[in-house]
From TrEMBL:
Subunit and partners: Homodimer.
Keyword Membrane appears in the UniProt entry: no
Organism expressing this protein natively: Streptomyces parvulus
Protein's recorded name: L-carnitine dehydrogenase
Highest taxon, organism lineage: Bacteria
Reaction it catalyzes: carnitine + NAD(+) = 3-dehydrocarnitine + NADH + H(+)
Described purpose of this protein according to its UniProt entry: Catalyzes the NAD(+)-dependent oxidation of L-carnitine to 3-dehydrocarnitine.
Amino acid sequence: MTSPEKTPAATALSPAPGFVPPESVRRVACVGAGVIGGGWVAHFLARGYDVTAWDPAPDAERRLRRLVDAAWPTLASLGLAEGASRDRLTVAETLEQAVSDAEFVQESAPENLGLKRDLLARLDAATPPGVVIASSTSGYPMTEMQTTAADPSRLVVGHPFNPPYLIPLVEVAGGERTDAGAVAQAARFYEAAGKSVITMDNEIPGFIANRLQEALWREALHMVANGEATVRDIDLSITEGPGLRWAVMGPMLTFALAGGEGGMAHMLDHFGPSLKSPWTRLEAPELDKELYDAVVAGCDEAADGRSIADLVAERDWGVVEVLRATGRLAGGEGTR
Ligand SMILES: NC(=O)C1=CN([C@@H]2O[C@H](COP(=O)(O)OP(=O)(O)OC[C@H]3O[C@@H](n4cnc5c(N)ncnc54)[C@H](O)[C@@H]3O)[C@@H](O)[C@H]2O)C=CC1
Ligand SMILES: C[N+](C)(C)CC(=O)CC(=O)[O-]
């Protein structure tokens, strides 16, 4: 179950005594500054926060500043918060320095359970009291990550979508030892920072969106493994098909419209029996070398000479146009 009060009403969740008021948070620490940590940094800077980042890789600062610079023109075209500036990014020498005066901490280190456990315990030891520490994990339940922290009550999952500076959704959940107030605090902070929040009352395996994405991805891999579709066919089947509708309406309401005037009830009467048809192979395929190579080669072919930086720019432009067209941006012409 998810909280009945989802976006925009996560603000209606109980206030969190003992925490910094979410609307007055000004300083954010981002720990781990790769694809996602860097994306978070760009987002928080554009929203006018002071951001301190830390990442142990020797070339991390160069990569981070390059990512922020690449995203900045898009963020500027969307409208920066008053006072927003790339000069408000500090890269700390140590993890302890990064979080010493943070009012919210976003962890985006590699997806490795042991590493996350140790890092969250270290972050908890170094972060001032009353500050929530959120993990960007794509799927570990917080209960499994908070095992070694001295104060697990302030550890939450805050799962973003790539790139966090453009995709609004954040999925928020606590673990068995998380204080409900910390979950509410994170949800309210993300909303104040311009995100759309889904708060999960329980630890849902894969959260919500990744569970759905993984089902789709598993089927895509089966089709490549069996020679039923190419990587290009799979991408086209979504970008020229359901993907266009999903940017406007989710899969449920989209299918309700498949029932015509009868809506979802007619859709279920009509197509419900086909749910049992053997279309899906939900067991995961073996990710052997042959499948691995076929997917990588198919993506290279589909990229057709475009570099990763070209693809990032193309994706960002497209997402902004979709957000604008569907009225999710100030000045948009959509009807939402
Ligand atoms: N890539 C994606 O599309 C998404 C990833 N995530 C999650 O975000 C997290 C980060 O993933 P990515 O940014 O894709 O990985 P990445 O590999 O691009 O970046 C990870 C960064 O963490 C740094 N790092 C390594 N050890 C560290 C440590 N002990 N403490 C702090 N930083 C450390 C690395 O130097 C690297 O810069 C993962 O938990 C992942 O599941 C969430 C949503 C989407
Ligand atoms: C590929 N991924 C599982 C890391 C993706 C995510 O977690 C969310 C996203 O950005 O789609």
